[in-house]
Amino acid sequence: xxxxxxxxxxxxxxxxxxxxxxxxxxxxxxxxxxxxxxxxxxxxxxxxxxxxxxxxxxxxxxxxxxxxxxxxxxxxxxxxxxxxxxxxxx
Length: 90
Description:
Residues 69-90 are annotated as: Disordered. 82% of the residues lie in helices and 0% in strands. By secondary structure, the protein is mainly alpha-helical. It is elongated.
């Protein structure tokens, strides 16, 4: 079972960057999908310390992706709010 977990972790590590970068329409598979897969591995209760470290690293990568994806949306919302506020004062 440990070998299967290693293979799944290696697969996820390879494809996550490609899946999250996606194309112009956005990610091919969202971060929540990959999180669910990683948590499923944790739920087996058969994860070694090294595997736990790898899974934690991948979860941190997904967290960073979510933070960076949220920043442009927040900036554009603030910009839109600022524009509408200025146009009302002029």
